[in-house]
Design goal:
single chain; about 425 residues; 2-enoyl-CoA Hydratase, Chain A, domain 1; Rossmann fold; six-stranded parallel beta sheet; 11 helices; about 25% helix; about 20% strand; globular
């Protein structure tokens, strides 16, 4: 038997690589992102990047005379290693005369669940949890009205954030199904906006104006009104400094684009378009997409597997190994067998060319079924051990199969044209 080695269990006590065994008679190709060999930044390089801002003064200069500082960071559905970035931010704040009791940290979770201490400590570090107040954004209450964007979207932002006179954001520039790329304005919309604002932005303002959707529309940024609207949120909330991290397939930082929330994001997106690119392949009997950097939103990886399956029929496999399970999403998730958030749909459809849809996790959840359209349940499988996965794949495809493997389908993209079934 041959094997592929994939990174698993992010935010656990022991993230590590796992060997997934495959028949050695299969024709297996691993499709890494273009920048997968980029060297990981060392602490000094992180500090240098943050101290060399794009379109902005340094944090140490912005901090002078300020009274209250919030550091926003993205949640556990993003691979951003905030604990590796925060020391450089604190050093800049101290250089600007800011004292510890003037600083707070806020998890910009948008419409996702609140996170407990055990999880937040992995994101920001035990030292930060002990020394500073670390809060979850709460989208249902205490949000300040700021008017509307040029698109007419209602703008309501976390009141605690708005009470701060210096606002610093830490996030990453991951490919995103709706926005093209993360980072930039997304730290505010949806990061620390009200539930009503998030629903307005996602469900009304841009419903008709998003780019044509395909099974994998990640990376569609140019001309996309969603990130433009989100950037208006960030400007209205007066984000002073933004740090966009470029990650590799194992959630390590290989680049930082810091400075003005808009200017730094432009440079970051240009780099991300090349860094995260994978070939456009569609001729595989089996496509296996691992989810690591966003494993609790592993359905994003599923889209990469769908695209790579040949149009005459094949099997898509998603690997979703995280002890966190699937993130609880107040806007898009199911909150019962017949109820959900404001924009919960009827489940994700499986493309007609995918004969079998395998969603593999060592941490099974019965509610996973409700992410899939009921019409496609008969061809969907939720195994919790790899032996069952391989057994089914051999049953359906035998010992001769063309196989594509994506080390992190949540952290890659291939620009896709509009498709029609």
């Amino acid at each position: 038997m041959a094997y592929v080695r994939l990174m698993e269990y992010e935010w656990s006590d022991n993230p590590h690589e796992v060997d997934y065994y495959l028949p050695d008679s299969w024709n297996v190709t691993i499709y890494h992102i273009a920048g997968w060999r980029k060297p990981v930044l060392k602490p000094r390089q992180i500090s240098t990047a943050i101290a060399s801002p794009i379109g902005s003064r340094r944090i140490s200069e912005l901090a002078k005379g300020k009274k209250k500082v919030c550091v926003l960071f993205d949640d556990m559905s993003r691979g951003t290693p905030a604990s590796k970035i925060i020391p450089a931010v604190l050093a800049e704040l101290k250089a600007g005369g800011i004292k510890d009791d003037q600083i707070e940290f806020i998890c910009a979770l948008g419409a996702h669940q609140a996170w407990d201490r055990s999880v937040l400590a992995r994101k920001v570090g035990e030292d930060i949890m002990k020394k500073y107040p670390v809060f979850n954004h709460f989208p249902f209450y205490n949000c300040t009205p700021l008017g509307t964007t040029s698109f007419g979207t209602k703008v309501e932002v976390n009141s605690e954030v708005m009470s701060c006179d210096l606002k610093i954001a830490i996030s990453n520039i991951v490919p995103h199904p709706s926005y093209g790329f993360g980072g930039g304005g997304k730290i505010v919309m949806p990061g620390c906006s009200s539930y009503d604002s998030i629903a307005d932005h996602h469900g009304r303002t841009h419903k008709a104006s998003r780019p044509p959707r395909t099974p994998d529309a990640k990376g569609v940024f140019d001309g996309n009104t969603s990130p433009i609207d989100a950037m208006e949120f960030a400007r209205m909330a007066k984000i002073d400094f933004s740090i966009n991290c470029l990650l590799n397939e194992t959630a390590q930082t290989v680049g930082i684009f810091a400075g003005d929330v808009g200017e730094a994001h432009k440079v970051a997106v240009a780099a991300a378009k090349e860094h995260f690119r994978v070939p456009d392949v569609r001729d595989n009997d089996i496509a296996i997409a691992n989810a690591y950097c966003k494993a609790d939103e592993a359905f994003i990886a599923t889209a990469a597997a769908f695209i790579a399956v040949k149009r005459t029929g094949g099997t898509a496999v998603t690997i979703a190994n995280t002890h966190l399970g699937t993130v609880a999403h107040y806007l898009l998730g199911a909150w019962g067998m017949s109820t959900g958030g404001k924009l919960t749909g009827t489940g994700t459809p499986v493309p007609s060319w995918v004969n079998h849809n395998i969603y593999y996790s060592e941490f099974p959840e019965g509610r996973t079924w409700y992410w899939w359209a009921k019409k496609d349940w008969p061809k969907t499988y939720l195994p919790d051990n790899w032996a069952e996965v391989i057994g089914r794949l051999i049953e359906w495809h035998g010992l001769k199969a063309k196989v594509a493997v994506f080390p992190d389908g949540t952290n890659q993209y291939t620009p896709q044209p509009e498709y029609q079934e």
